[in-house]
Backbone:
């Protein structure tokens, strides 16, 4: 199992600079890659540049970038710009995001998300491998001056069309907050789609909330992140089947985040993540590996554990 670390601003009361602390800890502890997450607070390419300037070794991936809010060239140029400034490989992750983010943050229509993802993945892949001197886009009088960023193309996927896009164009497919059972099913779909596309299946990674020996603040932060998934098709069923149907019903009725956190038992945190003592977390890692996951991208709880230091130290590469 490979491990990477996610540095993303949480939309709660955590410090806005917390992603930098997480990234610096990950670099110091020997993790190979840090994801600079996109969100309402940070632009992922700016955050990736700041992380690159504050660290020494880690490779970087920016995103997932919502495909309805950037054009393919802007995305590829962003990665190349970061790589030129930090002197390290930089990859790009693409995703459809959600209506809540695309329309509620960017004020853009989330139209034809699966089709736009497919179009952009194909275009971004070409741009990521273009050489200096080539037109920035076919027929343009402007030419590239920056070298390729050197990192992988990742596609965040969950539904069949997005999985087919990842299988056809990506170096890596990304899942978000999933159980081992979901990984097993999605791994099978990815392998089948790659076979249909005539490609070797891309690596399969997942962003997973992580908290080793969590204190109550860490646990509440993980549960707060999970609460946002209780009404999402494909996730609500997982939580209901795991015995958390009351919380799912509350979410469907419009309950706020704090109400949902109070309604979710501590055990819910381990349903789609790595939460508990070190032995329990290691057993959970084994379950994800057995289900077909290639890489765990740790999203460490930082409440009660600044920079995710405790969790990242416990799970640091050997």
Residues:
């Amino acid at each position: 199992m490979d491990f990477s670390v996610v540095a993303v601003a949480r939309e709660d009361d955590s410090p806005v600079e917390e992603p930098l602390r997480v990234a610096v800890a990950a670099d110091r502890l020997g993790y190979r890659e840090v994801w600079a997450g996109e969100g309402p607070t940070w632009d992922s390419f700016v955050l990736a540049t700041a992380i690159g300037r504050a660290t020494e070794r880690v490779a970087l991936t920016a995103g997932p970038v919502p495909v309805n809010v950037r054009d393919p060239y802007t995305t590829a140029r962003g990665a190349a710009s970061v790589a030129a400034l930090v002197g390290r490989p930089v990859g790009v992750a693409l995703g459809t995001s959600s209506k809540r983010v695309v329309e509620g943050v960017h004020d853009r229509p989330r139209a034809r998300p699966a089709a736009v993802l497919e179009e952009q993945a194909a275009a971004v892949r070409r741009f990521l491998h273009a050489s200096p001197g080539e037109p920035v886009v076919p027929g343009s009088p402007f030419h590239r001056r920056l070298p390729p960023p050197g990192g992988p193309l990742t596609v965040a996927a969950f539904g069949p069309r997005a999985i087919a896009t990842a299988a056809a164009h990506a170096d890596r497919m990304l899942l978000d907050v999933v159980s081992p059972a979901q990984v097993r099913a999605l791994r099978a779909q990815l392998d089948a789609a790659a076979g249909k596309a005539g490609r070797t299946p891309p690596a399969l990674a997942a962003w997973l909330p992580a908290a080793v020996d969590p204190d109550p603040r860490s646990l509440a932060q993980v549960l707060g992140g999970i609460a946002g998934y209780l009404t999402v098709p494909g996730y609500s069923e997982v939580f209901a089947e795991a015995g958390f149907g009351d919380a799912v019903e509350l979410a469907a009725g419009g309950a706020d985040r704090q109400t949902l956190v109070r309604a979710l038992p501590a055990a819910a945190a381990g349903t789609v993540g790595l939460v508990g003592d070190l032995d329990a977390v290691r057993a959970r890692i084994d379950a994800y590996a057995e289900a077909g996951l290639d890489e765990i991208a740790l999203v460490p709880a930082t409440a009660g554990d600044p920079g995710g230091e405790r969790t990242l130290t416990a799970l640091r590469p050997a």
About this structure: The radius of gyration is 19 Å. The first strand starts at residue 2 and ends at 7. The chain has one domain: 2-214+271-314. The beta strands are 2-7, 33-36, 59-66, 90-95, 150-156, 172-176, 203-212, 274-276, 295-300.
